[in-house]
Amino acid sequence: MASSSKGSLPCVLLLLAVFHHGCSSARAHRRAGDMERSMSTDDSSMIERFQRWKAAYNKSYATVAEERRRFRVYARNMAYIEATNAEAEAAGLTYELGETAYTDLTNQEFMAMYTAPAPAQLPADESVITTRAGPVDAVGGAPGQLPVYVNLSTSAPASVDWRASGAVTPVKNQGRCGSCWAFSTVAVVEGIYQIRTGKLVSLSEQELVDCDTLDDGCDGGISYRALRWIASNGGITTETDYPYTGTTDACNRAKLSHNAVSIAGLRRVATRSEASLANAVAGQPVAVSIEAGGDNFQHYKKGVYNGPCGTNLNHGVTVVGYGQEAAGGDRYWIVKNSWGQGWGDDGYIRMKKDVAGKPEGLCGIAIRPSYPLM
């Protein structure tokens, strides 16, 4: 999805970078295999670590056989984590992996449980409008196309963190339901409501999962569609009124009029424009889609994530700010996830911002942003 380079040298450098990451990942897997073969499943120190991990994340298993299997997966993942961290500097990684609530899952299991397939081809009226001209909040394209926010100004604040302003609710957990889109949608509505009123209210993801007819419940969705549904419904109720179940249930239509927060509409952010995304985030949290779920993403613990990942958009998250490492280091997005506080950096990930040669942003973060109007 990235734009093609005008010269051959950037292409060569990009290919070298991809090759470098790919080779680094392969080396980490080989080293992890060597480490795994060096320890048997009755390794007392690894068993002790597994037991401490189980206690920390309140894990239990139905059968002894399942616990043995999960121990083997845990040990294999820990071998990969330690091998990757050992080679991080040489591989150019600017983050660390570590134990999370999901260290007992294979990556295939994790992907199936916590990401969703990329949606089918979008209808023409939902196509992304691309423009580098026009005023802020310009409405572009033919009638019926969604309005687009374009702002290429470099005058945005150097850093923004809506958590510090009290506009972000605690990290939530979607569970084994492909409802990430509902969580990112709710997060941006919660954010703008707090910014406008000073009141932080936890809103209902489950109402979207059950009642939003523009999306597909636990089988996936897109935040801007959900924002459009909220606007057409007249608002959305609270999490307390319509609590989360983690399954797609029949819509409780009696709750559709219990609107705690209403929005006036939505804006799409100009695609493949991290400058426009930064200016939008300077005003409020923004919903985005990314490619997530590879081994390194699953085991991310801290630091500025700089790949590997592509642009197969399979997960909805919320950008709640941005900043830069000390001494002119990497610029990054502050991203709120919906995998619980037991994943990543207390439920968050910092993702590298303004990656050279990637107008789509790391993991496609700048392809499909949107936010509500109030």
From TrEMBL:
Secretion signal: which residues?
Answer: 1-25
InterPro entries with a match to the protein in the record: Papain-like_cys_pep_sf (IPR038765), Pept_asp_AS (IPR025661), Pept_cys_AS (IPR000169), Pept_his_AS (IPR025660), Peptidase_C1A (IPR013128), Peptidase_C1A_C (IPR000668), Peptidase_C1A_papain-like (IPR039417), Prot_inhib_I29 (IPR013201)
Among its keywords, does the record have Hydrolase?
Answer: yes
Where would I find the Peptidase C1A papain C-terminal domain in this sequence? Answer: 156-373
Q: Which GO terms describe its molecular function?
A: cysteine-type peptidase activity
Record-linked PROSITE patterns: THIOL_PROTEASE_ASN, THIOL_PROTEASE_CYS, THIOL_PROTEASE_HIS
Q: Does the keyword Disulfide bond apply?
A: yes
Q: Which UniProt keywords apply?
A: Disulfide bond, Hydrolase, Protease, Signal
SUPFAM superfamilies from the UniProt entry: Cysteine proteinases (SSF54001)
Its GO biological process annotations read: proteolysis
UniProt domain Cathepsin propeptide inhibitor: residue ranges: 50-110
Q: Which domain of life is it from?
A: Eukaryota
Q: Would you identify the family this protein belongs to, as annotated?
A: Belongs to the peptidase C1 family.
Check the record and name the PANTHER family matching this protein: CYSTEINE PROTEASE FAMILY C1-RELATED (PTHR12411)
Kindly provide the name given to this protein in its UniProt entry. Answer: Senescence-specific cysteine protease SAG12
* Organism listed in the record: Zea mays (Maize)
Record lineage: Eukaryota, Viridiplantae, Streptophyta, Embryophyta, Tracheophyta
